[in-house]
Structure formats: C-alpha cells, structure tokens
User: Fold EamA domain-containing protein from Neobacillus rhizosphaerae.
Amino acid sequence: MKTVLGLFFTLLWSSAAIATKFGLNSTTPLVLATTRFLIAGVLLFLYVYLFHKKYPWPKTQEWRPLIILGLLNTTIYLGATFWALKYVSAGLFNLFVTTNPFVVAILSNIWLKRKVSLKEWIGMIVGGMGLVIATCPSFTSNEVKLFGLVILGIGMVSMAIGSVYFNKVNLNLPSIVINTWQVSIGGVVLIPITYILEKDHYFLILDFNLFVSLIWLVFIISIGSMLLWFYLLKQDTVRANNWLFMTPIFGYVLAVILLNESITMFNITATVFVVAGLLISGNIAIRPKR
Assistant:
C-alpha cells in the first residue's frame, strides 16, 4: 500500500511543472503562484472551519511552526520553483526535485538523529546517476540559464529544510489544518514579493491555459498532493523524499502525452537507474514484507 501511495504522489507531483508551464503562457510566474496559493488557502479555510467545524484552531505555541512551514514550503520553495520554470525546462526542474533526499538525509541525521542506512545511500546515488543521464541534453543546450538554476536550487533546499522541520516540531494538528495555514500564510507573504519583482512586466490573460493550470495546481497539487505528502512524511521523512526520484520519469511520460515531447534513450536509461535505486534503497519491495 505504501508503494502505491508513493507512486501516486509522485505522479501528481510531477504534473505540477507541466501545469505551471501551461499557466506561464497566460501570466507571470509569481502572479500565477500567488493566485494559486490564495485560492487554495481560501478553499481550504472554508472547508476546515465553516463546513467541518470539528477541526481545531492552532494554539499559541503552534503559530510559529506554521509560519515557518508557510515560508519554507510555500513562499520560498513554491515561489522559487514557479519563478525558475520561466528559465529552465520541466525536465531539468524534475532533476532538481531529486536532490531533496540528499539534503533531507543530511539534515535528518543532524536534527532528528535518524541514521541513514548504507543501502539508502547507495540507492539514492544510483537513482541520482540515472537522473543526471536523463537530463544531460539540457546542460548542452541553450535552454538552461544560471539564474534559473540558482533560484531552483534555493527552492529545493527550502523544501528539504521544511520536510525535516515538519518532522522535528511534530505538530499535533490534522494534516489538512497544517496545509490550510501553510498555504494561506505563504500566499499572503508572497503578495508584496510578487509586486516588487514583477510590477514592471506584469501581464494576465484570462484564457483556457490559465484556468486549466489554476484548477489543477489548486485542487490536485496544493490540496490533494500536499495532504498525501504530509502523510508520507509522518511515516518516514527520508523514505518520503526518496519517492521524488521518480518525478522526472513520470514527468517525461506526461510531457509526451500533454506536450507532444519525445522520449529518448537518455530517458529510458534513466528509468532503469531510478527504479534500481528505489529497489536498492527499499522504497519498492518485490515481495511484500512479513
């Protein structure tokens, strides 16, 4: 069951970059990101506190962790990745997603005293090698810009820190309540940042691309996949992040279907490496454990 949930999360998560690419045809990156977060925050708030009044409000001591999570997981991570997707390809974006397990493993060892096993390290290295192979063509083309890589790197590090921090603080709140506040807080903080960075080149086209992008990003990514992400994190922080190794593979498949892109031998070779890495690390079991 954990394998099914991990694969399902990865499929949803990998679709975010493609949905964002559609939305960027109609508006600027941070406007798209801010709009997504505010809509998702309002919908979650209405569901949690008006339609289902059983959910608790955060206690005084819980506001600080919620604000930090909102800044790390929404404002910095998602804001940076939306901005970076203006400069880098979706494939390269998904490569950077796979750097999270390495950062999380190190931070978990320092903060949570969680020992990373040798097979997990070997599995991550093998999977990482496959993803480098898959994205080699991107590094030899003109589509990659250093600015985009720096922004993307900042975002991915922020997500890794957020993952470990979430496990460390161990908030005694339902996942949907945590997600409601981190999305809302992160979106509000992003408003002035969006104005400062994009006021000189702002544009907004209310068309099919924008609406489809927002619907998918709000309901499937911000609400659905984030709830699943918190569940996986509570099971095991490092193992949850290891599932991110599969995002480039699903991303390529979705790109073929939705963007008419082709799959190369680089992609096929990468698939073999990534699946092998997951098998070695223990995220996919050929036989069910007893």
About this structure: DSSP finds twelve helices and no strands in the chain. The chain has one domain: 2-281.
